[in-house]
Design a protein that fits this description.
heterotrimer, A alpha+beta (134), B alpha+beta (145), C alpha/beta (679), B: 145 residues, alpha+beta, Alpha-Beta Plaits, two-stranded antiparallel ribbon, C: alpha/beta, N-terminal domain of TfIIb, 7-stranded mixed beta sheet, 24 helices, 19% strand, globular
């Protein structure tokens, strides 16, 4: 079965995506993401290999141990407030990007990033068109 | 190769979205955004020189291949870090990542070929030429437009 | 696996873009673009890209159906044709041929339209029309009178040669998206773009001068512009003297029509009207593009006339980059009219009330007893069905229950018929009222020619088989005609086109062989060695003395105006993701998914007064009924004016039946309405 180090897990769902036996369950509300690893008897260690956070290990089955479960509150977008990602994922992305890119925009949700990009690229043109319309 | 938008030309018809979806098995990578009721602009992967999505990917599923930011679906775990790392919000994750592949294997990206308004191009110089031509005309008309 | 690429013409708008349908194992599996195509250069809009979604659609009609209780029963073609022949035959025998009416289809090929009108007229009824009545009937009437030909005068790509493009009553960026590429090419070369529309639209985004007029005041705007042109001496005196007649009367008629007076009526500032007048008249090549914002009025014919007056007094016609350009809505609405599927015209625009016409077709068709007068128009047929003057109808590929004004009364009129046959690819609202429904083939399931809005005749090939036992309209019409005792011996579309070559002079040189070898040909093409005529009127007009007619046009207000009870003007139109009555686009997942609901656009200040927020469900009411829609707040609407797209069933419940007295087109563009938030 799988042992989870909750201090390393970032809540990304890779393990659940790659599990061939649907043994890693996910539930997501607007507020939080929850992941539960069922007591798995497979010899497979795909989730362990493909965990970007190296948070998982394969250990012998232990019927008395509870099924591991973690939950992450989702972080609200700085602009629209919609909750969009677990904080450890965002911290990890922010740390991975060069400081020169000043990546504070990771705290904006992708939809707001697109809106900002659309407004930035068209701003001057929109102002001109509105002037023309009077 | 990358491609460019002549934002003055975009008419918000969303043909690029429908065409992209059509050739990518129902999952499109372009999204047309409307700015109030005065403009629209298609948003898609910039194929950044320093691609944040590739930097964030732990398994090398996203990588630079010449000018293109390429994606190898075999290596993707669907973690979504790339989507959170894209400054423009145009790398998508839906159990698996998907993004613009510049229509690999086709002579030209489908969105470019289909754009009714001729707003998309793979030729940066074309956009520059159009802009120069408009500027020259404006100057000749005494800057009245 | 071998993939075959079959060239077809897009089934949606009148631009006539071509594309290849990729066929694998007898299924349409993809689209390949056609970069050499003269209109689209390979481009396709969202609808074109989604067009294959309707070919293998699960709701396609696959078998002839007859009414059985509240539902439908399948039947064989033999039984179906027998029922149709009996129903139509009985109506003719018992009530007379003029109690039967036919609606041809601007979605069908030229060959099919030719046969439908021939069938109607050989059966002795003059009542044949098509939905051009609802979009460009005023262009047919008005341009035939003033210019001697009804059609775009110049090709679409020629717009790039214009130095001033005046777009009035057309949202071409959404409805003919590929045309915007040519407008932009002209802009890059310095062209000025003028857009006149009650709404700000993606078309108005292209404008240098935007004239946001009140719906129904087009004549006032155009007369004001003409007044200013004459006042400043910007007209082309030489052209007026050599090529036109009627200028003096026209000049006199607009003497009082100053830009200030026009401004008062239209709500457009006088200085903008003056700017537009100068830009249009003084450019070396100006063109006017217009569409249903001009035609769908009680003054539709007058609006068209006012447009052509402007071109004639400035000589902006007959040369590259100039012209009068009615942009037509359906892929073959031009062709359906050319083929005589019109109440007042036989094929080739020969007048139905001209004895010469009857003599010609009596000889050509060996038919001694052709109807000798104009028939009822599409909308008049519906009224006649309600009153009992029409007892049986045969409707091909049209959906009046959705597309006609005041649609609640249309449904009851159709139900009042003794016998109704509907031939279509889907079970439309109109088909729901039928006694017999015949399953037809879609565009890529048959072959034939289509004529686009610039008069370009193109051959479209068959890519796949129709679903189930559906058949091409051409085969169905021939079966029906034969069962009614007529000699309709046409093995294929090419054999019909050969007859068209003999009976329609404009198409005389447009043969099947040339269409295959040379691609599209633009009519008039009077002989097999003629290259076609992309630009009309370059050496005079096909009217008396070869002169065009400048017609004085008085301003008349729309039939309905704002009142305390109905304080808003409702105007209707189209959006990029849908097409006309929506029977295809509302079934196309990638289109309906993007534009799922009926909405009403309203100015935020008006909405605030009514306590309406963006996205709120509202009731829009007129004297004719109520429709629900989601409010969309936009600064692009003028105060006091609201807009609804007509692709959804609700909209035409509201529209008025008031029609142009001559062209009989309903005033879809102006209905007085009120709006209230739903609780």
């Amino acid at each position: 079965m799988i042992r989870v180090d909750p201090s390393l897990c970032i809540g990304c769902l890779s393990c659940s995506n790659v599990c061939p036996s649907q043994n890693i369950l996910r539930t997501e509300t607007v507020e939080e993401r929850r992941i539960r690893w069922k007591r798995c008897r497979e010899e497979c260690d795909l989730c362990v290999e493909l965990c970007p956070a190296r948070a998982l290990t394969l250990v012998p089955i232990d019927e008395s141990a509870p099924e591991p479960e973690v939950s992450f509150p989702l972080v609200g977008c700085r602009i629209c407030g919609r909750r969009y990602a677990p904080e450890p994922m965002l911290r990890r992305v922010e740390a991975a990007l060069p400081k020169s890119q000043s990546p504070e925009w990771v705290w904006d949700c992708p939809a707001c990033r697109r809106r900002a990009e659309a407004e930035r690229t068209t701003g001057e043109m929109v102002a001109a068109r509105r002037r023309r319309r009077g | 190769m990358a491609f460019y938008v002549d934002i003055r030309r975009c008419i918000g018809c969303r043909s690029c979205e429908v065409a992209c979806e059509r050739v990518h098995g129902g999952r499109g990578h372009v999204q047309v955004h409307f700015v109030g009721d005065s403009a629209s602009v298609p948003l898609f992967c910039h194929h950044c020189e320093e691609a944040s999505c590739a930097t964030a990917c732990s398994f090398g599923a996203l990588f630079k291949e010449g000018e293109r930011t390429a994606f190898d679906v075999e290596k993707c775990t669907g973690c979504g870090l790339c989507s959170l790392a894209c400054p423009f919000g145009v790398v998508w994750t839906d159990k698996i990542a998907h993004k613009c592949d510049l229509c690999d294997g086709r002579p030209e990206p489908t969105c470019v070929a289909t754009c009714p308004a001729d707003a998309l191009s793979t030729d940066f110089d074309l956009l520059a030429r159009r802009a120069r031509s408009r500027a020259a005309r404006a100057a000749a008309q005494g800057g009245r437009r | 696996m071998t993939k075959v690429l079959v060239p077809t013409v897009c089934p949606y708008c009148g631009a006539g873009c071509g594309f290849f349908v990729a066929v694998e194992r007898e299924r349409a599996v993809g689209i390949e673009y056609m970069p050499d195509h003269p209109v689209g250069e390979g481009a396709l809009c969202s609808k074109g890209n989604a067009s294959l979604e309707i070919l293998h659609h699960q709701e396609r009609l696959t078998s002839p159906l007859k009414r059985k209780g509240d539902g439908w029963a399948k039947m064989t073609w033999d039984e179906a044709i027998g029922l149709v022949a009996r129903g139509i035959g009985e109506a003719i025998r018992e009530d007379g041929p003029d109690k039967v009416a036919f609606l041809a289809s601007s979605k069908c090929t030229n060959e099919e339209n030719y046969l439908i009108q021939k069938l109607a007229r050989l059966l002795g009824t003059p009542h044949i029309d098509n939905c051009a009545r609802l979009c460009h009937a005023p262009s047919v009437v008005g341009l035939n009178r003033s210019l001697g030909a009804a059609g775009m005068t110049n090709p679409i790509p020629d717009v790039a040669n214009s130095r001033c493009i005046f777009i009035i009553g057309s949202n071409l960026a959404e409805n003919h998206p590929v045309i915007s590429r040519w407008v932009h090419r002209a802009k890059d070369a310095g062209a000025v773009v003028i857009v006149a529309d009650p709404r700000a639209t993606p078309t108005s985004w292209m404008a240098d001068i935007f004239l946001q007029l009140t719906p129904g005041t087009d004549v006032a705007l155009l007369n004001g512009i003409a007044h200013q042109i004459i006042k400043e001496g910007l007209m082309d005196r030489e052209y007026i003297a050599e090529r036109t007649r009627g200028f003096e009367e026209f000049e006199e008629s607009i003497r009082e029509f100053t830009p200030e007076k026009a401004a008062e009526i239209t709500g457009v500032p006088a200085e903008e009207i003056i700017r537009a007048a100068r830009a249009y008249a003084s450019s070396p090549a100006s063109t006017i593009l217009y569409s249903m914002g001009i035609t769908q009025h009680t003054t539709g014919t007058e609006n068209v006339q006012a447009v052509s007056n402007l071109a004639l007094i400035t000589g902006q016609i007959g040369r590259p980059g100039t012209g009068v350009m009615p942009l037509r809505g359906q892929n073959n609405v031009q062709g359906a009219c050319d083929m005589g599927a019109l109440a007042e015209f036989y094929p080739g625009y020969r007048r139905a009330d001209d004895p010469g016409t009857i003599e010609f077709f009596s000889a050509a068709w060996e038919a001694p007893a052709l109807p000798t007068s104009p028939g009822l128009t599409a909308t008049e047929m519906i009224g006649a069905a309600a009153s009992g003057d029409i007892r049986a109808m045969y409707i091909v590929g049209e959906d009046p229950a959705n597309s006609d004004p005041s649609s609640l009364s249309v449904k009851s009129a159709l139900e009042a018929l003794d016998f109704l046959v509907v031939q279509d690819i889907f079970m439309t609202a109109t088909a729901q009222a039928a006694d017999v429904v015949l399953p037809a083939a879609a565009w890529a399931e048959k072959e034939g020619s289509f004529t686009n809005t610039e008069r370009r005749v193109q051959w479209s090939s068959k890519a796949v088989e129709p679903p189930g036992s559906a058949l091409p309209d051409l085969e169905i019409i021939c079966m029906v005609a034969r069962s009614l005792g007529l000699d309709f011996d046409y093995p294929d579309a090419a054999s019909v086109l050969a007859e068209i070559n003999r009976t329609v002079p404009q198409y005389a040189g447009i043969t099947r062989e040339r269409l295959a070898k040379e691609g599209g040909l633009v009519w008039p093409c009077p002989s097999c060695d003629h290259p076609g005529t992309p630009i009309l009127h370059s050496s005079g007009f096909r009217l008396a003395d070869g002169r065009a007619y400048i017609v004085p046009v008085p301003y008349r207000p729309a039939a309905e105006g704002q009142s305390p009870e109905y304080p808003f003007l409702l105007t209707t139109g189209r959006i990029a993701l849908h097409h006309n009555a929506g029977s295809m686009t509302r079934r196309s997942p990638s289109l309906i998914g993007r534009a799922p609901d009926l909405f009403v656009e309203i100015n935020p200040a008006d909405a605030e007064k009514l306590g309406i927020g963006d996205g709120d469900l509202v009731d829009v009411s007129t004297e004719r009924g109520v429709a629900q829609a989601a409010a969309r707040l936009t600064e692009g609407m003028k105060r006091g004016v609201v807009f609804m797209p007509f692709h959804f069933p609700g909209t035409n419940i509201l529209t008025t039946e008031a029609a142009d007295p001559e062209a009989r087109i309903p005033e879809f563009k102006v209905s007085a309405c009120r709006i209230a938030r739903r609780n």
